[in-house]
Amino acid sequence: MVQKKEKERSLSKTSRPFGRIQKRILFLTVSCLFGMCLIISFASYYIFQKYLQHSLIQSTETNLKLLTDTINGSMDNVYLMVRFLQTNSEVAEYIENNPNPGSVLSVSTYERINEEYNNNASNAYMPRVAVITSDHFLQIVSASYSSTSDLAQEVPKLSFFQELLEDTSYNFSIGLINDPFYRKGRAVLPIIRPITYQYNSVQGGYLFIEVSTELFASPLRRYNVAEDSNIYLTLGDHNYVYREGAFEELDGSYELLKDLTESAITDNIRVTKIRTSDSRNRIVVTSALNMPDCYISQSISHSELFNQQLLWWAILAGILIGILGIGILLMIILNRMIHVPVFKLQAKMLRIADGDFSRDPSIEWNHELGDIGRGINDLSEDVYLLMNKRIEDEKQKRDLEYKMLQSQINPHFLYNTLNSIKWMATIQGACGIAEMTTALSRLLKSVSKGTSLLIPIREELSLVENYFTIQSYRYGGTLSLEIHVEEEFIYDCEIIKFTLQPLVENAIFHGIEPKGTTGRITINAFCEKKAEDSPDGLPQLRIDITDDGVGISPDKAQQILVDNQENSTDFFREIGVSNVHKRLQYEFGESYGITIASEEGAYTTMSIHIPGRRAGRKD
């Protein structure tokens, strides 16, 4: 082992300088080319990024301008309705006379307002239009939004009523509110303006109009926006974001980072770079509406920015391809000078790792690398000889253990059989002796026949049946044995000779005999796992030997599998189970062997786990 480690350290020291030479040449060349690539890439990126950002801002500005014009057009129609109500003589007369509901003046004024409302192109965005005096009101409202509220009494109670009424111009600073007269709740923008008498400027009443958010949302549904771009509506100090067909008020503030308005092409457009409350940088294009302190804004899509950077990536890819070409040229030169010998040495070491220890003369060149190759060949031959010696030692060990097991089993068979014959001859006067003698002869024949370690499960089951025939006579027919084999192919699968017999004997003497009554032993062989589900490509078999005896404790079950004390009075029974477990693991691997499940006073099941390998085949 020490000599092997010294050879590995020598190989490592010898091959290390060549790796350093390759790395140095590649590092210097690639570093120079990479530096040039970085300079060109950063310069081109800066220029292209500026151009791309400017282009996206102008594109967003154009689209936002069209959206703003649509909203302004609808809002102008709302203003027309407001001006009509403020200037119409019939409405002024209604305000001055304050007639009772149902009067001629009330009906004619309502019809005139309704006519103007129906002719207004934006009437769909005004779900409620009302003219209110001190005592009465006229209301244009759809049936679904109607209410029994007395607007003349309820509107003056609104918190924003006096502020909107006394303002000299339109005031939208209160933002969107929930409709106070609609029980299901909806967002509206209220307009309250005074209505004066016909021949003087004294206020006699006022108008109350609810503007639906559909005025803003309807054109937005036809407006294509990228997934990571947002539309914002600003009403005074209130900011809203448009999401899924509705406006949600934003609670978080933002930080202004930079003013980019110089990139805009029109005067009423403002461009800013902000940092939102979630620490994201956004470029926002803002367009003013024909409403005091009201704006529509759109954030530039990062996905569009990325998609339009494809040209820059193509330029960078071209530069990288050029560097890659130079690198390939360097690799070809290095391959001819150094890499081919090193690669052959590495390939040889990989073959050794895969189990090929044959000598390879092609790596024994007439230079320093050839010395390394000769050292690798010598090392592989030494390892091969050592492995063969180890395998031979293991084989001898297994053969010895098997012969020792036979030497343990044969006297035990003879003793029990002769003892059984003695009792049968004494009690029954020779009845049944023929059958027991036949079973004994078959057992002795199985013991002495050949030296093969593996036999088909069919033969092992036959051996168990012969053994059980003898034991059933010994116990006067109080024992019964049932054998179940799930599939026919299991009979032809290999098992180590004398695997089942010690377990059956253990079930009789340790499980059923202490119970003092009749007992049953069941052998069940089945396929535990299919070949396609197994890591080694073989079906996994399981053979359960179950008795209905006294059972054992979990500690005792574990001790049976590991106990190796030869001084125990139960030497054959416990050591036999332990030996069977070890033999199975020696032959098939550590994942196989025996497991024990038991419940004291109820049962004991010893399960044998083996691969489903058919007799005579190793695949």
TrEMBL record:
HAMP domain ranges (all copies): 336-388
Location(s), subcellular: Membrane
InterPro entries found in the cross-reference section: Bact_2-comp_sensor_kinase (IPR050640), HAMP_dom (IPR003660), HATPase_C_sf (IPR036890), HATPase_dom (IPR003594), Sig_transdc_His_kin_internal (IPR010559)
Organism superkingdom: Bacteria
PROSITE patterns: HAMP (PS50885)
Gene3D superfamilies: 6.10.340.10, Histidine kinase-like ATPase, C-terminal domain (3.30.565.10)
Residues that span the membrane, as ranges: 25-48, 310-334
One function term, GO molecular function aspect: phosphorelay sensor kinase activity
SUPFAM superfamilies in UniProt: ATPase domain of HSP90 chaperone/DNA topoisomerase II/histidine kinase
Keyword Membrane appears in the UniProt entry: yes
Keywords: Kinase, Membrane, Phosphoprotein, Transferase, Transmembrane, Transmembrane helix
Protein name (Swiss-Prot/TrEMBL): Sensor histidine kinase
Lineage: Bacteria, Bacillati, Bacillota, Clostridia, Lachnospirales
